[in-house]
Specification:
alpha/beta, single chain
């Protein structure tokens, strides 16, 4: 029999672990049965509950899975050893030719997050936006800063609430900037942006919307975690031309591929599906009838091709 958890212990249920680590409930149960980790306690109702230490180790395991490790090779190791493996396997943060900030300046933004200086963070980010313009701000500042924040969170050097403060600050700045872009005329394309259920990361969606809007597209965003049938209905009712989906590396590969295939099967060929984000399965499993945008800067060339292909004559 599993030991029960004391009433005053801080524990979270399996749904919270799934949300905070990106590992599905089925995966957690399989690992528990096959590898003996995690080994959750039980609450008064007999439901699985997990400790903060469990969550920290599961985050490291998820990160190593993304780097190509297999669970049977890592789950028996200590968190300290997993952290060493993750640090060794981590690729260097990307440096883009148009990057607006060097590593020290990106780190300065992160220091403001750690210091909880939210107003100062927003002020400095806004100044950067005004200086660089929206496109260069998104690709040269927000993209590398997102990577740095995600890396710090995965290494346990950033609290969940601190990551949320950062995300809310970026979303506020990007929404204000997008709302200030002059509205286009009636020329297509009309773009619907959203994510699938279980994909709660909305920054990539906003970053993509910024690039679409700058290219003269009419955009409508459904936000995050929209079921496939609702995406289909919205695309038909709104008469959009392109459905744009964003995927982070926290998404389960089978859910990504299965959801895209389901969406493609339910949408008529006249609706295009464009996918982006850093989910590795998108590179390994290209799908027929679906366009993969590897970088935000791919939006402009892709739209140019789309418009050329639909030009009369």
């Amino acid at each position: 029999m599993k030991p029960s958890v004391p009433r005053d212990s801080h524990q979270v249920n399996i749904a919270a672990v799934e949300r905070d680590t990106g590992l599905s409930k089925d995966t957690l149960r399989v690992w528990e049965r096959r590898y003996g980790f995690p080994a959750p306690l039980r609450d008064g109702s007999g439901q699985r509950v997990y400790t903060a230490a469990d969550i920290d180790k599961l985050r490291l395991a998820k990160r190593l899975l993304d780097y190509g490790y297999r669970p049977g090779k890592i789950l028996s190791h200590s968190p300290e050893h997993l952290l060493q493996l993750a640090n060794a396997a981590a690729p260097p943060l990307p440096r883009r030719p148009d990057a607006a900030h060097d590593g020290a300046e990106i780190e300065a933004f992160l220091d403001l997050v750690r210091a909880h200086r939210v107003e100062e963070l927003r002020r400095q980010l806004s100044q950067s936006l005004l200086r660089l313009g929206l496109a260069h701000f998104v690709s040269g500042v927000v993209a590398p800063l997102n990577a740095r924040v995600g890396d710090a969170w995965a290494r346990g050097k950033l609290e969940v609430f601190e990551e949320h403060l950062y995300s809310e600050s970026i979303q506020l700045i990007l929404r204000n900037a997008i709302s200030g872009i002059p509205r286009p005329g009636v020329d297509p394309p009309f773009v619907l942006l959203t994510t699938f259920p279980r994909e709660s990361h909305g920054l990539g969606l906003l970053m993509a919307e910024a690039f679409f809007a700058l290219e003269g597209c009419r955009c409508i965003s459904l936000g995050v975690q929209t079921p496939v049938p609702d995406i289909v209905r919205a695309a038909r009712i709104q008469k959009v031309d392109i459905v744009a989906l964003s995927f982070s590396d926290s998404m389960n590969a089978n859910q990504v591929i299965g959801g895209i295939a389901e969406l493609r099967a339910q949408l008529a060929p006249g609706f295009e599906i464009w996918v982006g984000g850093n989910c590795s399965i998108l590179e390994r499993r290209p799908l027929d009838g679906v366009a993969r945008l590897r970088l935000l800067t791919d939006v402009g060339p892709a739209l140019a091709r789309w418009r050329k292909n639909r030009r009369p004559g």
